[in-house]
TrEMBL record:
Residues 3-30 form the UBZ4-type domain. Residues 26-109 are annotated as: Disordered. SUPFAM superfamilies: P-loop containing nucleoside triphosphate hydrolases, post-AAA+ oligomerization domain-like. This is UBZ4-type domain-containing protein. Residues 54-64 have a biased composition (Low complexity). Pfam families: AAA, AAA_assoc_2, MgsA_C.
């Protein structure tokens, strides 16, 4: 049984019976004896007014209280009243204290100040204006910062370890690092490998050491584009991360396995940020449109924009998981429709569809849809230019893809395929050359790896062409798919492996002629299954024989 003091008679009452007891106290005040030890006058008023909007009964039952509530005391009791209380007497001479709920204070925003702030923010890039300030506003990367996400737990508990954020551009690496700065009690320093050098890092390390000695306050150092530091420069972080002088948070778009020092990488956790989904980009674009329209209406005094579903989908498709790219495209459209629009009389909204956006972005932006038609059309034109030995056309399409933001590793992978499919056995050096190009892109990255891609494309275009293995392989696969007996024919016993005595006794490997034991390695021996007999897929013919009538 849990006892509490009744606020009227000061008796101790079981909490389960407090509601019934309060009804009795307030209905029959004359029967309530005075408290054994009345509290001083200065202490009673605060006790009664600490929660003016709710009675004790409402607190226990969860019901809403009325605006006014009255507690009655005998005349002998004296109380000091606050400004929110007033005295009144009934016909029986009992004094009633009436507690009036104060009006809630509403913070009024000065429209002039709000407009001034909006004008100042209008000069910032849209991506910066929309950067979230809390995890609740962060969109994407649910596997890391969603409910139960491991990184969310680190941030909320202020126990962030040294880590590397690896992901494509526009996936939220920098934003996530800045959210850590908002949530942590540690000192947070942001540097960029593109603008800060090793001397800046050394100064930060010294400040971090002194800060901890004086205040026991830890320091988190965020390095954006950390892969821009070469591996020798990255060594400077090792002792400070290992000793705990700093917590390192790095952001990179390149594979940490190739771009970061292995010793440093072993001391940091790597978190992979995925490309944003179409739904996540849709949320970001819709949120950005609200900001854009507020600015258009209040700052620029121009009609607002209304994008239909297809228009938003078009922007999300071009952005291909890159939120910054999506917002940049939206800003281009916003700038275009500042002056280039026509409205019907009485309308104040500019309706925007996908076709209008396509025309706008063709004039103001190099459109290369990395997941749509442009992606497949351009790589197809690139491949066919190499096949046709036109090195200049191959360079042209390569340039379009790189300028449009195509993944260079995707292009390098395609050239590895071309080396076998179109050049084949006539120039065996092309395949290792294409593989070396892929590795060069991995090790160096853009923009430095662009010439490696050009070098490989030109070599492949100028190499002699052979489709012998390509055609032979396709013919073989067609038979395997269409003729079940061809795919399941029994392998000859003399070609089978015989690792055990039992297999040898059964006849496995019996009669096999080991070619190196014979002159020139030539022997008479069957290699195909008996059921299908000898077949020939490689004819020795590298190209076709049909002349082009247009030549």
């Amino acid at each position: 049984m849990r006892l509490i003091n009744c606020p009227v008679c000061q008796r101790k009452v079981d909490i389960a019976l407090i509601n019934k007891h309060l009804d009795t106290c307030t209905e029959q005040p004359e029967s309530v004896p005075p408290p054994a030890a009345p509290a001083p006058a200065t202490e009673t008023a605060p006790e009664l007014t600490s929660q003016p909007a709710k009675s004790v009964s409402s607190l226990l039952t969860g019901t809403k209280s009325t605006k006014k509530s009255s507690y009655k005391y005998e005349n002998s009791q004296k109380r000091t009243l606050s400004d929110s209380q007033s005295l009144s007497s009934d016909h029986e001479g009992n004094t009633s204290i009436e507690i009036v709920e104060p009006e809630p204070k509403v913070r009024k925003t000065d429209p002039a100040d709000e407009l001034r702030l909006l004008k100042a923010q209008a000069k910032l890039p849209l991506a910066e204006r929309l950067r979230p300030s809390s995890l609740e506003d962060y969109i994407g990367q649910e596997h890391l910062v969603g409910e139960g996400g491991i990184l969310r737990g680190f941030i909320q508990n202020d126990r962030v370890p040294s880590l590397i954020l690896w992901g494509y551009p526009g996936t939220g690496k920098t934003t996530l690092a800045r959210l850590i700065s908002h949530a942590t009690k540690s000192r947070f320093i942001e540097l960029s490998a593109t603008s800060n050098g090793i001397s800046d890092c050394k100064r930060v390390f010294e400040e971090a050491r002194n800060e901890y000695k004086l205040t026991k306050r830890h320091t988190i150092v965020f390095i954006d584009e950390i892969h821009r530091f070469n591996k020798a420069q990255q060594d400077i972080f090792l002792p400070h991360v290992e000793k705990g002088t700093i917590t390192l948070v790095g952001a990179t778009t390149e594979n940490p396995s190739f771009q970061l020092n292995s010793a440093l990488l072993s001391r940091c956790r790597v978190f992979v940020l995925n490309r944003l989904t179409s739904d996540e980009l849709h949320k970001i674009v819709s949120k950005a449109l609200l900001v854009i329209n507020k600015t258009r209406k209040l700052v620029h005094n121009v009609p607002i924009l209304r994008f239909n579903k297809e228009a938003i989908g078009y922007i999300c498709n071009i952005a291909d998981g890159d939120s910054r790219s999506a917002l940049n495209l939206l800003e281009l459209a916003d700038s275009h429709f500042m002056t280039n629009y026509s409205l019907e009389p009485g309308k104040h909204v500019i309706e925007v569809n996908a076709e209008q956006l396509r025309e706008v972005l063709k004039r103001t932006h190099m459109v290369y849809d990395r997941v749509g038609d442009a992606h497949y059309d351009t790589i197809s034109a690139f491949h066919k230019s190499i096949r046709g030995s036109n090195a200049d056309a191959a360079m042209y399409y390569l340039g379009r893809m790189l300028k449009g933001g195509e993944n260079p590793l995707y292009i390098a992978r395609r050239m590895i395929r071309i080396a076998s499919e179109d050049v084949g056995v006539l120039d065996d050096s092309c395949l290792p050359f294409a593989i070396a190009t892929y590795q060069a892109v991995q090790f160096v990255g853009l923009p430095e790896a662009d010439l490696a891609l050009v070098h490989c494309a030109v070599k492949l275009a100028r190499a002699p062409k052979s489709v012998e293995i390509y055609r032979g392989w396709n013919e073989l696969n067609a038979k395997l798919d269409s003729e079940p007996e061809f795919a399941s024919a029994s392998i000859p016993l003399h070609l089978r492996n015989a690792p055990t005595k039992l297999m040898k006794e059964v006849g496995y490997s019996k009669g096999y002629k080991y070619n190196p034991d014979y002159k020139d390695g030539r022997v008479k021996q069957e290699y195909f299954p008996e059921q299908i007999g000898e077949m020939q897929f490689l004819t020795g013919q590298h190209l076709g024989l049909t002349p082009d009538p247009d030549l």
